[in-house]
Amino acid sequence: MASHQPYSGDILHLNVGGKRFSTSKQTLTLIPDTFFTALLSGRISSLRDEKGAIFIDRDPEIFSIILNYLRTREIDLHGTNIRTLRHEAEYYNIAPLVKRLILCEELTQSTCGDVLFYGYLPPPFIPVQDCSSASNSHYVETTAVHTVRPGSSIRVPDGQNSNSCNNTPSSSGTTNGESNGENSQNGSNHWSLHSSQVPPNPNQIITTPYNRPQGSIWADPLRVQIIKAHHNWIVVAYAHFIVSYRLKDSSGWQMVFTSPHIENCIERIAINAKMGTGENSKMVAISYGSQVRLWGISDNGEKTNIGIFNLHVRVEYLFFIGSQLVALSPCGKLGVWHAMTQHWQTQDVMPIASFDTAGSILLLGCNNGSIYYIDMQKFPLRMKDNDLLVTELYRDPNNDPVTAISVYLTPKTNLCGNWIEIAYGTTSGSVRVIVQHPETVGHGPQLFQTFTVHQSPVTKVTLSEKYLVSVCCEYNHVRSWRVTRFRGMLSTQPGSTPEASFKIVSLEAVEPSISHATSNDCGPFGEQDDEQVFVQKVVPDADQLFVRLASNGKRVCVIKAVDGSTVSAFCVHECEGSSRMGSRPRRFIFTGHSNGSIQMWDLTTALDLSYKTDLADKTNGGPSPEELLQMLDQCDLSNSLCSTPCMSPLPSIAAAARLKSSNVAFLNQQQDADRASSSS
Predict the structure, then answer these.
(1) How far, in Å, CA of 234 to CA of 250, rounded?
(2) How far is C-alpha 29 from the geometric centre of its chain's CA atoms?
(3) Class of domain 11-108 as given by CATH
(4) Concatenated DSSP letters for 253-309?
(5) Peptide bond before 169: cis, by omega within 30 degrees of 0?
(6) How far is it, in rounded angstroms, from Cα 44 to Cα 552?
(7) Crossing angle of helices 95-108 and 82-91, rounded to 10°
(8) pLDDT digits (tens, 9 = 90+) for 159-207
(9) What is the 3-state secondary structure (H, E, C) of 290-306?
(10) Distance (Å, rounded) from C-alpha 539 to C-alpha 506?
């Protein structure tokens, strides 16, 4: 590289990216303080090619547009990517052109959002920690561990105690610092209420709700972690507090409840917004570690601290079934709190791999290949020896662990549980459908159909009125079938027909304290009698989401944050319609962001608009190769935080370096396959 003296000639010869250009010095220097004035004055060293032309290692096609602008002060944007042109204009430091291009971009991008943008909730104030709250909290502890009695249909084999899994039991929340545990009859794996012994596992850490455990990871206090919704209420979890909002016809969304500061990082949340009227007509629950904390909220926003409960193993799932709050752990622990009796009960069951709810029924898919059910409507009126009535419903023919389960209640389902259809997936990749119709009463569900199209464990399965959709752990590979029904029931004439095959590729980072499945589950979302969708977040720091039809993977819309902030959590929910005549329920996507805000998007409008267009023309549902490359530029694939949803071992650093090109190649192949299926 050599430095040259200022030029005296009027004609300059340039070699830009291998293409030669000739122009005048006056043209290049007419705008002051640009790359060209610095180059010709000698402030920037330059290279020359074999013919003596100044070599500039940039895109010649874009340079020709910029050179034409310097000559005529006009710009032709036909067939030109404004973002790419602006990038080059910024490199050459041509300020007037950069300003014009910024204006052109702002004409198509607005902080007010597009037609799908529905609302914005600003970040809340972080509550101040109240040290006195620890002494005022009401702690409720179960008095004993209720294992399954011999009269029940499910038993825990000897030596397979569910508490043996590596989870951290937390203390009861008492202020004296004493550790609390279970008082089991066998005594070997449980600890008495006031035990001063150290747990046998050195990795276990005894904590209190108001003292941070040693080695805990700092979390951004305003980054939205989880969003849950029920009826016209939403609850938003941040690292150390939660906020609830409700929707009113006249005033829109209003903040109703803010929890006190929670010292531990919140990992799960649940909300029940329809429990009648009264002092505790709404319920909000959180969990951290093994503890569950529950509040009651009145219609005017007054809160009641109901209590803190202990599951004694890490809570992985927290949800309401009617008035009951349910906490589950995959290693086989179940906790239930009933609003009427104010009773908290824990029970050991088989290790749980999946679950689903249908009305008052809780279905558990277990590692032993069986599906069990608990009728919560009969709890606690029908308990045997203070146990939940856990009944075996079905056992897989190969005894494969049931890793995904979906219940569909046909329109003719009655209170006796007939007319029920269940789809489930296993670790071997099989997808099975079992049915119980009136003609099979007394015989239990019968195996209806089996699909063996997946080669990896099934992570999600959904049975709806029109489709059966399954997802396996290989980069969220989706298979879908169109089902045939006769009088509301599954029919074999002509039976299920394959619909589509596609992938919901996601490189989402898994937060240390919150599982990927909890905060950013890709779906499918929606009612079983309506169109369901997947929500795809490709990279961890993405500010946009791709919404795709669950039936065929076609793109419905792209949601992009109005303020450019990272989408850290999202939730799909259908809010009830207004009380006004003619109002109908609307589906929304609630996105939580790294800056603490909540943004709302009208999914009903997006689906309506997609129906008006020819979906066959949308050959690519997820990001195009160009869109993917643009997002991957913001994601370091060699970083361990950018993991994949695949349950197989994570790729090595060297393999991750090749992941970018392989993903683009996959998307190209997917486009070709989609085009072929559309043409056929």
Answers:
(1) 17
(2) 53
(3) alpha beta
(4) EEEEEEPPP-SSPP-EEEEE--S-SSTT-EEEEEEETTEEEEEEE-TTS-EEEEEEE
(5) no
(6) 54
(7) 160
(8) 334 344 544 433 333 333 333 333 333 333 222 222 223 333 323 223 3
(9) CEEEEEEECCCCCEEEE
(10) 6
Q: Order the strands of the 370-375 sheet from edge to edge.
A: 352-358, 361-366, 370-375, 391-395
Candidate from 19-28, 315-324, 339-348 with smallest mean pLDDT? 339-348
User: Domain 135-213+221-350 belongs to what topology?
Assistant: Lipocalin (2.40.128)
659 neighbors 637 (Cβ within 8 angstroms): yes
Q: How many CB atoms lie within 10 A of CB 609?
A: 14
Of residues 365, 260, 335, the one with CA closest to residue 303: 260
Closest among 460, 240, 283, 252 to 356, alpha carbons compared: 460
Pull the structure tokens for residue 281: 């007509």
Amino acid found at 380: P
Contact of 255 with 229, CB cutoff 8 Å? no
State the Cα–Cα distance between residues 275 and 243, nearest whole angstrom.
Answer: 19
**Backbone dihedral angles phi then psi of residue 79, each to the nearest 5 degrees:** 70, 15
Distances (CA, A) of 446 to 410, 430, 491: 16, 16, 14
Confirm if 209 and 134 have CB atoms less than 8 A apart: yes
- From CA 169, how far away is CA 408, in angstroms rounded? 36
For 227-259, how does the pLDDT look when each residue is reduced to its tens digit (9 = 90+)? 999 988 999 999 999 999 998 877 888 999 999
CA distance linking residue 481 with residue 328, whole number of Å: 31
Largest CA distance in the chain: 102
Do residues 380 and 341 make contact, with C-beta atoms less than 8 angstroms apart?
Answer: yes
Task: Give me the amino acid identity at 164.
Answer: S
Q: How far is CA 173 from CA 260, 288, 291, 310, in A?
A: 15, 12, 9, 9
Euclidean distance between the first and final Cα of the chain, in Å?
58
Please identify which residue in the block is written with the tokens 């590979």: 477
Burial class for 381, CB neighbours closer than 10 Å (0-12, 13-18, 19+): exposed
Q: Residue 354: CB partners within 8 Å, gap ≥ 6?
A: 364, 365, 402, 403, 404, 405, 424
- Closest C-alpha among 214, 213, 222 to residue 240: 222
Report the sign of the C-alpha dihedral through residues 571, 573, 578, 582, in that order: positive
C-alpha 216/C-alpha 344 separation (Å) is 28
Q: How far is Cα 205 from Cα 166, in angstroms, rounded to an integer?
A: 11
Predicted local confidence at residue 413, as pLDDT = 54
Query: Which residues lie below 8 Å from residue 252, measured CB to CB, with a gap of 6+?
Result: 119
pTM above 0.85, yes or no: no
Three-state SS string across 598-642, please? EEEEEHHHHHHHHHHCCHHHCCCCCCCHHHHHHHHCCCCCCCCCC
Alpha carbons 37 and 21: distance in angstroms, whole number: 17
Other CB atoms within a 10 A radius of the CB of residue 3 amount to 9
- Residues above pLDDT 70, as percent of the chain: 70
Cβ partners under 8 Å of residue 149, min gap 6 = 384, 385, 387
248: three-class secondary structure by DSSP: strand
The domain segmentation of the chain, as residue ranges, is 11-108, 135-213+221-350, 627-679
Pairing of strands 11-16, 54-56: parallel
Angle of CA points 149, 347, 518, to nearest 5°? 145
Residue 226's SS3 state is: strand
